[in-house]
Amino acid sequence: MRTLVFCAVLGALATDPAWAEGLPELRSRAAVVLDATTGDAIFSKAADEIRPIASTTKIFVAMAVRKRLDLNGWTEITKVDARYAAGGARTRLDIGQIFRNKDLLRAMLIASDNRAPTALARAAGMAPDELVAAMNAVARDLHLVRTKLTDPTGLRGNLSTAHEMALALRAALDDDVLRSIMRQDEADIESRDHYTRIHYGSTNAPLVAKQWDVIGGKTGYTKQAGYCFITGVQVDDRTLVMALLGADDKMSRFGDFNRLAQWIDRGAPGAHKADPRRKETPIPSAQRTAIDPPDAGPRLAGKRP
Questions:
Q1: Which of 257, 227, 255 has its CA nearest to residue 242?
Q2: CA–CA distance, 205 with 92 (Å, rounded to integer)
Q3: pLDDT digits (tens, 9 = 90+) for 103-143
Q4: What topology does CATH give the domain 2-296?
Q5: Spatial contact of 208 and 6, defined as CB atoms under 8 Å apart
C-alpha cells in the first residue's frame, strides 16, 4: 500500500509542466546531477552554494565508522545518544536496548534514527566529538572543501553544497555494505534480548515507489535546511548521483528527482544550457566487505518497466 501511495504522489508531481528551454525547473533551491563514473555535471542549479544539509549528514557518519566497526558486534543505546538526538524526529531506539551494529547502520541510513550515530561511534571506539572529527576527515579525504561538519546527527549545523554531497554519496555507494543497506526499502531489527522488534520503512520515496532503479540514498530535514534528498539511480545504462537541497515541502524534492530522471531519460535536451560540465578526479574505491548478500542486489540496474 505504501508503494502505491508513493507511486501516485510521485506520478502527480512528475506531470507538473515545470520545464524551461528543455531544462527541468526544480523547486529545490540547489541541485546537481553527476555522472557517477566520471564526476561530470549533467545538470546543476546553485550547485556550489553552501547550505545546511540536515540528516544527509549521516552518510559521513557511516563512512567514518566503517573501518573501525564490528558489524556483528552489539551496542547499547545510552543517555548520551538520547541527548544528541534531542529535538529530532521520534526515535525507536530506547535507552538500555542493545542492537547489532549492522542494524544500527540500518536504523540510521534507512529511517534516519537520530540515536544511531553516536551509538555507532561508541561501537567504533569514538566519543561524539571524535566522530565529528572523523567525519570531517572523510570530507577532507574526498576533497570536499566547502563541507563543514559540527554535529553527528545533522540536527544542528553541518554545511555543504549540492555538488559536494553528490560526490560524498558517490563514495558511500562505492562501499558494498553501505550500498546494500541504502538499497533496502524496509528492514526489521531486533534487540539482543529479543524483547524489541522494530520495522523500519525507507524515507527514500523513489526507492519505495520502484518507478526507477534507485540504489538508495538519504533524506534530511530541518527548518534551516528545508527538505533535502541525495540518491543514486541508473537511467538507461548511465549511473547517476543526484543531490537536491532546500525544498520547501516534503514531496517536492522527490518530484524534482522524477523531473530530472525523466529529462535524462529523454536524452537531457538543452543540457548544454546547464552550468559548465566539470571534470572530477575519480574517487578511489572504499573498503568493501559484503554482508547480507540478499540485501545487496545488483549494483545498479536499468529503469524498470
A1: 257
A2: 20
A3: 999 999 999 999 999 999 999 999 999 999 999 999 999 99
A4: Beta-lactamase (3.40.710)
A5: yes
Contact status, residue 115 vs residue 198, Cβ threshold 8 Å:
no
Backbone region of residue 240 per phi and psi (left: phi > 0; alpha: psi in -120 to 50; beta: other values):
beta
Helix pair angle (58-65, 128-141), 10° resolution: 90
Amino acid type, 41: A
Domain assignments of the chain as residue spans, ordered by start: 2-296
Residue 100 confidence class, pLDDT cut points 50, 70, 90:
very high
State the Cα–Cα distance between residues 291 and 158, nearest whole angstrom.
30
Cβ atoms of 203 and 112 within 8 Å: the answer is yes
Mean pLDDT within 155-166: 96
The predicted model scores a pTM of 0.85
